[in-house]
Protein: Phage holin family protein
Amino acid sequence: MFRAIIHWVLSAIALMVATNVVPGFYVNDIQSALVAALVIGVLNATLGFILKVITFPFAIVTFGVFLLVINAAMILLASKIVSGFVVYGWIPAFWAALILALLGMLIRALMSDQ
Structure:
């Protein structure tokens, strides 16, 4: 349980980092980032999982780049749900998905040592 909370907080921090790097991707404050991280996680675990299973052949043909498109769609959907979290279009969502994927790999690598 404690690891899940740490992962959630680190994911919110990753959203704040993406806010500083990607133009058109904004999170107002840490509270919005925490809610957005939770909503993105739930969306990826449910709808995102179903979409990744259905579009698996596209993921193979594109060497996994299409998975970033699905993650960008989940980010856009989360921005419609969470107030204080705004994404202006597919391009910022795609770049944010790429940055969040890279930061997520770093987070998982750091958490696996414990």
In short: The first helix runs from residue 2 to 21. The beta strands are 25-27, 85-87. DSSP finds five helices and two strands in the chain.
